[in-house]
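Lab manual, section 2.4: Encoding a predicted structure.

Procedure: take the sequence of the chain (136 residues), apply the prediction step described in section 2.3, and record the output as C-alpha cells. A sample record is shown.
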Amino acid sequence: MDFITKNIFLVVIALVSGGMLLWPLLRKGTGGGPLIAIAAHLDTVFPAGTDVKVKRTGTRLAAPGVGDDARSLAVMLAIVRAMDRAKVQTKSDILFVADVGEEGPGDLRGMRQLFLKGPYKDRIKAFVSIDDRVKY
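Recorded output:
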C-alpha cells in the first residue's frame, strides 16, 4: 500500500484563514534535513463578471480555467507515489501543498499564508513550485 493510500483518511483538505488550501501531506524524512515544500496550485482567479460557464463542443468541455495547473497537481501526486514505490528515503521532511489564490486577483494569497502565517512558515528552507505553462 503506497503513502497516499495509507494516508488517505489523513489527507483532509483544510481551508484556513487567508485562503491557503493546504493538503497536509507531510512525507517524513529520516531526520537532519531542512523542510522542503513542493506546491502546485488548484485554482484560477478571474475578475468579477467573467463567464465561467462550461461549454461543450462534441466531446470537448471548455471554460476559463478548466484544467488550469491540473498537470502540475498530477505531477505532484506522481512524485509522492514514485518516491513511495521506489522506497526513496530523504533526510528532509517534504511538505506537499495544494494552494489557492494563485493568479491575478488572488494575489498569491495561498503562498502568502504558507510563508507568512501558516504552521510551517518558519521551517520551510527550500521550495519548489510546479506550474503548467502549456498554452492550448
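Check your result against the sample. Residues 15 and 21 are 5 Å apart (CA to CA).
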